[in-house]
């Protein structure tokens, strides 16, 4: 008998059937992966199991008994917990304080700090989750913070742990450690449900995998009887395409960065002494655990942050103090890491977002008024060229899926024929088809003699798309490698502060 079972789960949103009579079952002591394209319905199903959504039809059973889960508090009381992709931690509190928050041991009216620390230490040791209970959470790495989220569930005696894209921002070493923790949790009788896009990890840690497509379950496979290729084909309904790479020759310097330094929050140094060159006809990958200066680097290069030291040259021109628009007009384009808040205005129409960086040009405005007909014609051309699935260019951009929003951003940025494209986390949260499309566009731009700076936390992407790679650690370049002679283990070591290594 399954420990957690959903039968006939159906969920409607306006204009969308998110879950269509979905059946799902996970056993006690099992790591069960759930995979699917964006919009396949897997997150909706998990939100229903955790009480964040109410199903329109269907039943949920826990240990053979029918249960109703109207809210997360009920789910937690039943022993179902969820670790969200964006952690829910208080950075100013200690590890122990975060773990017991809301269920604190008391000494009179006050928190029993000693008892809380002891309980968290014992729980962490029992499950192999190495943490310092007295450490302030804001000072800890992403990998350690994730362990704290898991400890929060275990402290509340959760028997079912749902993890949403848990490895998205981890280094290879941290991923290995997490997968070992998940193995151990399953071995101790917990049910672990893993939502992920990374099929290699599914095969490494899960016992079974449920594949969803367009709101339905299209397959359930024991991992011993499937492969990455089969799972990918089930997810997208076709065989995944390999990234085609033509041989390119690095040309003249397109972007030169010398001794760049920038301050981050609270005036602390976020970048220090960063120097590199980017040549025409190449993709330069920037790897690193998030929070090691990547965001400040991108903002300094694009004009969103004023550098404290150093110089930036674009095609030989000093642009260090230039405003954003002037940099754009000189040939610098930017795909920001947060496409929904920085890349587009969700409430503006698709066509308006497609001209957001060019609306001031005579082609699109006259006497301060937009030439709507010309804007629409231009937008329609870009929608067709970049295969954006949109019913109407006048629709709000926020009605598009994440993958189609990213296509809108790419269409706008590449339409200006940029000399240098800075792409920050360009495939984060995208499914297989969206990821294929974005990576192919980056390589195509490179093959056309343009230059691409790719900032990504996905090491597979960095290795497959880049020609050279630099690794940032605590705001400095920890190493530079040629992509063909690099591997994830070496990159991971540098990302964690290992000895700098330079490969010619």
CATH class of the largest domain: Alpha Beta
Indicate the radius of gyration in whole angstroms: 24 Å
Describe the biggest sheet? 7 strands, mixed
Beta-strand segment tally: 25
Q: Which CATH architecture of the largest domain would you pick?
A: 3-Layer(aba) Sandwich
Describe this structure in words.
- The C terminus is likely disordered.
- Strand 23 and strand 24 form a beta hairpin.
- The protein folds into two domains: 233 residues, Rossmann fold (3-Layer(aba) Sandwich); 157 residues, Rossmann fold (3-Layer(aba) Sandwich).
- It is of the alpha/beta class.
- The strands form six sheets. Strands 18-21-22-15-23-24-25 form a seven-stranded mixed beta sheet, with helices on both faces.
Tags for this model:
7-stranded mixed beta sheet, Rossmann fold, 17 helices, alpha/beta, 504 residues, disordered C terminus, 2 domains, 27% strand
Write the layout of secondary structure elements.
Elements: E1 4-13, E2 16-26, E3 31-36, H1 42-49, E4 57-62, E5 65-67, H2 72-78, E6 80-83, H3 95-100, E7 106-107, E8 110-111, H4 113-126, H5 142-155, E9 160-164, H6 172-187, E10 191-195, H7 199-205, E11 208-213, E12 216-222, H8 228-236, E13 253-263, E14 269-279, E15 283-287, H9 294-302, E16 309-314, E17 317-318, H10 324-329, E18 332-335, H11 339-343, H12 350-354, E19 365-366, E20 369-370, H13 372-385, H14 402-415, E21 420-424, H15 432-447, E22 451-455, H16 459-465, E23 468-473, E24 476-482, H17 488-495, E25 501-502
Parallel strand pairs: 3-10, 3-11, 6-9, 9-10, 15-22, 15-23, 18-21, 21-22, 24-25
Antiparallel strand pairs: 1-2, 1-4, 4-5, 7-8, 11-12, 13-14, 13-16, 16-17, 19-20, 23-24
Helix pairs in contact: 14-15
